[in-house]
C-alpha cells in the first residue's frame, strides 16, 4: 500500500504540469478574461453613458428576495461554479487522454523503463497506479481548481456590483458551494469507471506501440469504422455502423472527457425543464447511468484492456 | 555456497539470428565477472534474461528464483545499471532518493545521502540538468545504498570521461563490493575493468567462448615476443594470434607450456584486450 502511494506520487511528480498547472492556469486565464470583460464593460459603458453589465434592473436585488428568486439566484451561482469546472474538465480530458497515451510508452522511449524495472515494483501496481493518478487524482485536483475558480468568479462579480452601490454579498449565501463540491467530487468515481474503456485502450496502445502510440490509438478504430461503413455501403454485410461509432469508438477514445456520460441515452428520461437542468448533475441522477448494461460492458471491456496492458508492460522492453 | 546464477541451455532467437545459442554457465558468489563480447554478441540479451526482462528457452536460476516468474521478489536482491542516463529526465535528486527509499525494502537512506554528499549533486537538481557523469553518480549512489546480492552493470560508464570512469569503479570496489556480493559487468572499455575482475567470460555470436577465472587465464594464455629471425619457428607452435611491434613479433598462445615459450623469447601475460581481439578475430568479416 505504501508502495502504491509512492507510485501515484511519482506520477504526480512527473505530470505536475498536466495534473496541477493545467487546471490552475486554465482557471487563472478564465478569471483574467472575466476581469477584462468587466473592466472593458465598465470603460465602454462610462464612455457611452450607459451600463452594459449592471443596468438599473439589478436594483431588484435591493428588496428582500422571495423564496423563488432566492432559489433562482442560488441556481445561477451554482451554474457559474459548475461552468468553471466544466471548462477545466475539458482541459482535464485532453490531459488524461495524452497522459494515458504516454504513460507506458514514454519511459520505454527514453529508456528510463530500465530504471523503474530495476526496482522491486510489480507491473500490475505500476499500471494501476497510473490509472488511479489519471482518473482519480487528476480529476480531484481539477475539481478543486474548478470550484475555487468558480468561487473567485462569484466574488469578482460581487465586488464589481458593489462598485455600483449594489450590495450582493447577502446573495452569496443562496449559492450551494458545498453541494457543488460534493456533486463534483462524488462523480469522480463514476468518471473513473466510465472512463475505463478509454484508459484501458489508451494504456494498451501505450504499452504496445513501438512508435507513434497516438496513431495506433486513434487511427486503428477509425479505419475499422470506415471499413465497416464501406461494407455497409456495398450492402454485403449489415453490421451496425452507428452502433460501432457510438459504443466503441467514442467509448475507447472520448470517455476520458468528464461528463461525457451525460449524453448517454439513459438520461433522456430526465425531464428537460430549465429549472431541473442542474438535477442532472446531482449524484443520484449522475449515477443512474450505471443502470445501463452498456456501462458495465464498457467497464469490463476496459478492465480486460488494462489486463492486456499489464501483461505487455511485463514483457515489452526498451527495444 | 550455491551458485548465484546457474544457466543451462539458455537460448533466445530474434527474427533470424540467435542472440543466445544454448548457453550454460555458473557464477559463484563474491565474484566480479566481466562479460565481454563484440556488439551484437548477446551480452545484453543474457543480462536481460537474468533480470527477467525478456523471455528465453532453457533453465535459469538466479538466487534460487526464476526470473521469468518471480521477478518482483528477485528485484529485491538484484540491482542493475543498464547504460548511463536511464534515470528519468524529469526526476529531482530528492525525489529519486525518496522514491527508492519508500519502495525498496533494502535501501539505506543514510548511506545514499553519504554518497551524495561526496558529489556536487544538490537535492533540487533535476536529471535533465545534469551531465552524464553526474547522472551516473546519482544512479550509483542509489544502487550502492541497496543491500543487494547481485549487481548487474551493462555498459555503466559509456561516454563518461576518464575521471568519472575511474571514480565509478573505485567506489564500487571500496564502498560496495564484499564477499557476499556478486557483480556482473559488460563493457567495451576492457582495460579499465581488467584489474578488478575475478572472472572472465567472452561471448561471441550467442555462445560463450571463454569462461575462466583470472588466475586460470594467466596460466592458460601467454604472449611471447621474438625477433623476426625466429618467427617461423614460433609460428610452428600454432599461436592464436600474431602482431608486429617495433620490428618484433608478438605471438599469443593458448595452453602452451611456459618453459617451452621462455626458450623462444620474452614471455608475459597478455592483456584482456589483446586476448579479446585475438579471440574475436573475424567477427565482423
Output the keywords.
heterodimer; A: 319 residues; mainly alpha; globular; B: alpha/beta; Rossmann fold; Alpha-Beta Plaits; 2 domains; six-stranded mixed sheet
What does this structure look like?
The complex is a heterodimer of chains A (319) and B (285). Chain A has 319 residues and is mainly α. Chain A has one domain. Chain A is 71% helix and 0% strand. Chain A has 13 helices and no strands. Chain A has helices spanning 2-14, 16-48, 67-103, 106-109, 113-116, 123-163, 177-186, 188-194, 196-208, 213-234, 241-254, 283-287, 293-315. Chain B is α/β, with parallel strands linked by helices and 285 residues long. Chain B has two domains: 5-205, 3-Layer(aba) Sandwich (Rossmann fold), CATH 3.40.50; 217-279, Alpha-Beta Plaits. Chain B has eleven helices and 13 strands. Chain B has helices at 43-50, 71-74, 93-103, 109-117, 132-144, 162-176, 190-193, 214-220, 231-235, 258-262, 272-279, and strands at 5-13, 18-27, 32-36, 57-62, 78-82, 150-154, 182-186, 199-204, 207-213, 221-227, 241-245, 248-254, 266-268. Chain B has a six-stranded mixed beta sheet with strand order 5-6-7-3-8-9, with helices on both faces. A four-stranded antiparallel beta sheet of chain B has the order 11-12-10-13. Chain B has a three-stranded antiparallel beta sheet with strand order 2-1-4, covered by helices on one side. The longest helix of chain B has 15 residues, at 162-176. Chain B starts with a strand and ends in a 6-residue tail after the last helix. The interface between A and B is medium-sized, with 26 and 32 residues. Chain B: This is ABC transporter ATP-binding protein. Chain B: One of its GO terms (molecular function) is ATP binding.
Amino acid at each position: 500500500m505504501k508502495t502504491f502511494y509512492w507510485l501515484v506520487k511519482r506520477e504526480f511528480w512527473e505530470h505536475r504540469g498536466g495534473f496541477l498547472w493545467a487546471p490552475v492556469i486554465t482557471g487563472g486565464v478564465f478569471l483574467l478574461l472575466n476581469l477584462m470583460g468587466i473592466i472593458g464593460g465598465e470603460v465602454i459603458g462610462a464612455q457611452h453613458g450607459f451600463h452594459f453589465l449592471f443596468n438599473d434592473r439589478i436594483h431588484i436585488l435591493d428588496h428582500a428576495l422571495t423564496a423563488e428568486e432566492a432559489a433562482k439566484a442560488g441556481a445561477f451561482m451554482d451554474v457559474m461554479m459548475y461552468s468553471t469546472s466544466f471548462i477545466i474538465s475539458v482541459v482535464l480530458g485532453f490531459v488524461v487522454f495524452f497522459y494515458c497515451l504516454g504513460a507506458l510508452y514514454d519511459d520505454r522511449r527514453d529508456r528510463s523503463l530500465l530504471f523503474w524495472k530495476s526496482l522491486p515494483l510489480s507491473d500490475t501496481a505500476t499500471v494501476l497506479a497510473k490509472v488511479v493518478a489519471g482518473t482519480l487524482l487528476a480529476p480531484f485536483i481539477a475539481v478543486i481548481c474548478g470550484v475555487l475558480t468558480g468561487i473567485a468568479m462569484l466574488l469578482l462579480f460581487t465586488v464589481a456590483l458593489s462598485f455600483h452601490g449594489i450590495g450582493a454579498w447577502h446573495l452569496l449565501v443562496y449559492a450551494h458551494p458545498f453541494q457543488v463540491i460534493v456533486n463534483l467530487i462524488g462523480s469522480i468515481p463514476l468518471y473513473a469507471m466510465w472512463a475505463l474503456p478509454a484508459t484501458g485502450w489508451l494504456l494498451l496502445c501505450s504499452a504496445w506501440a513501438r512508435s507513434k502510440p497516438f496513431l495506433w490509438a486513434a487511427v486503428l478504430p477509425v479505419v475499422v469504422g470506415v471499413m465497416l461503413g464501406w461494407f455497409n455501403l456495398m450492402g454485403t454485410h449489415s453490421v451496425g455502423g452507428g452502433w460501432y461509432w457510438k459504443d466503441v469508438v467514442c467509448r475507447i477514445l472520448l470517455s476520458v472527457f468528464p461528463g461525457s456520460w451525460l449524453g448517454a441515452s439513459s438520461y433522456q428520461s430526465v425531464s428537460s425543464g430549465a429549472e431541473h437542468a442542474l438535477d442532472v448533475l446531482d449524484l443520484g441522477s449522475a449515477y443512474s447511468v450505471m443502470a445501463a448494461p452498456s456501462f458495465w460492458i464498457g467497464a469490463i471491456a476496459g478492465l480486460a484492456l488494462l489486463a492486456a496492458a499489464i501483461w505487455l508492460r511485463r514483457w515489452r522492453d526498451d527495444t | 555456497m550455491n551458485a548465484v546464477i546457474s544457466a543451462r541451455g539458455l537460448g533466445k532467437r530474434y527474427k533470424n539470428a540467435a542472440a543466445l545459442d544454448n548457453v550454460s554457465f555458473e557464477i559463484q558468489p563474491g565474484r566480479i565477472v566481466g562479460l565481454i563480447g563484440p556488439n551484437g554478441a548477446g551480452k545484453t540479451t543474457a543480462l536481460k534474461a537474468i533480470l527477467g526482462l525478456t523471455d528465453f528457452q532453457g533453465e535459469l536460476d538466479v538466487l534460487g528464483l526464476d526470473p521469468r516468474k518471480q521477478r518482483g521478489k528477485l528485484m529485491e536482491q538484484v540491482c542493475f545499471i543498464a547504460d548511463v542516463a536511464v534515470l528519468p529526465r524529469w526526476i529531482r535528486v530528492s525525489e529519486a532518493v525518496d522514491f527508492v527509499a519508500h519502495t525498496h525494502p533494502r535501501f539505506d537512506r543514510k548511506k545514499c545521502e553519504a554518497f551524495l554528499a561526496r558529489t556536487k549533486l544538490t537535492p533540487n537538481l533535476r536529471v535533465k540538468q545534469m551531465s552524464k557523469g553526474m547522472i551516473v553518480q546519482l544512479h550509483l549512489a542509489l544502487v550502492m545504498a541497496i543491500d543487494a546480492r547481485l549487481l548487474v552493470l551493462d555498459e555503466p560508464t559509456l561516454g563518461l570521461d576518464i575521471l568519472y570512469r575511474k571514480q565509478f569503479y573505485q567506489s564500487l570496489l571500496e564502498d560496495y563490493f564484499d564477499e557476499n556480493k556478486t557483480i556482473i559487468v559488460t563493457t567495451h572499455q576492457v582495460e579499465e575493468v581488467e584489474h578488478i575482475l575475478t572472472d572472465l567470460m567472452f561471448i561471441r555470436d550467442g555462445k560463450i567462448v571463454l569462461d575462466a577465472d583470472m588466475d586460470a587465464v594467466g596460466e592458460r594464455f601467454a604472449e611471447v615476443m621474438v625477433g623476426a629471425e625466429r618467427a617461423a619457428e614460433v609460428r610452428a607452435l600454432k599461436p592464436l594470434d600474431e602482431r608486429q611491434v617495433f620490428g618484433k613479433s608478438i605471438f599469443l598462445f593458448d595452453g602452451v607450456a611456459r618453459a617451452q615459450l621462455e626458450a623462444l623469447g620474452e614471455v608475459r601475460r597478455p592483456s584482456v584486450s589483446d586476448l579479446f581481439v585475438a579471440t574475436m578475430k573475424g567477427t565482423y568479416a
